[in-house]
C-alpha cells in the first residue's frame, strides 16, 4: 500500500530455524463499523432527539457540510461512533510507541505463552539513516551505500546470534519468559488494535507527516508506515470524514 516492495531475506541458522528478515509492516482490517453516516446521526441526536434514528440510513453525501462543520469546530464526540479493528505485525520498537496511545484497545501476542517466530526487521535502502540537529529538531538524511550495508550486516548478524541463543535456552528447558530476554527490539510482534475514528485521527495527526498539517509531526518512519496503512482504510470507509480531516489541517476534533 504505497510502499516499495519489502526487503525479505531467508537464512538457515545453525539451530535449523528459518530466520526471516522483513522491511515492511502488516496491517489488515479485520472488522469495522465505520461510515460517514455514523457521524451524521450521532451528531443530529443533539437537536432531533429520538428522531435522529430517522437519519441512520441517510445519504451522508448530503451532509458533507455538517461533517466539515463538526471537524472545523472540533465537536469530536460524533466521530467516536465508528470503529475499526486491525491486525498488525510490526517490530517491537514500533509497538513501544504505538502503546503510548492510550486511546485504543490492544491484545498482543505473548512471549510468555508462545515461542516467538524468528522474524526480524531490517530497514531497506529507502530508510533514511543519518540524524542531525538537536533534540526536538532532528532532521534525517539518506544514508550512503556503506552505511546501509553496515546496518544490514550488523542487524542480521545480531539477530541470528540472538535467536540461536533463544532456541538454545528453550531446548534446555528454560522458561519462555526467561529465554526471550536475549531477543532484540526488531523482532516482530502482532496485536489486534481496536480504535474509533476520532482516536484514529489523533493517531494520524501525530504519527504521519504531511505538508498540509497545521501542526507538523516528525514520526519515526516505522510507526508512520503503520499509520499510512490505517489511513488508507479510513479514507476508503469514511471518505467525507477523511476529506474534512485533510481540509482542516489534519487536526483531530
What does this structure look like?
This protein has 253 residues and is of the alpha+beta class. The chain is built from eight helices and nine strands. It has a single domain, classed as Gyrase A, domain 2 (2-Layer Sandwich), CATH 3.30.1360.170. The protein has helices at residues 36-48, 64-72, 92-98, 145-171, 176-179, 197-207, 221-237, 239-247, and strands at 9-12, 18-22, 26-33, 83-91, 105-108, 119-121, 130-132, 139-141, 188-196. Strands 3-4-9-5 form a four-stranded antiparallel β-sheet. Strands 1-2-6 form a three-stranded mixed β-sheet, with helices on one face. Helix 2 (64-72) packs across helix 8 (239-247) and helix 7 (221-237) packs across helix 8 (239-247). It is globular and about 65 Å long.
Largest sheet: 4 strands, antiparallel
Overall geometry: globular
State which percent range the strand residues make up: 15-25%
The percentage helix is 25-40%
* C-alpha end-to-end distance: 26 Å
Mean pLDDT across all amino acids: 89
CATH class, please? Alpha Beta
- Strands, count: 9
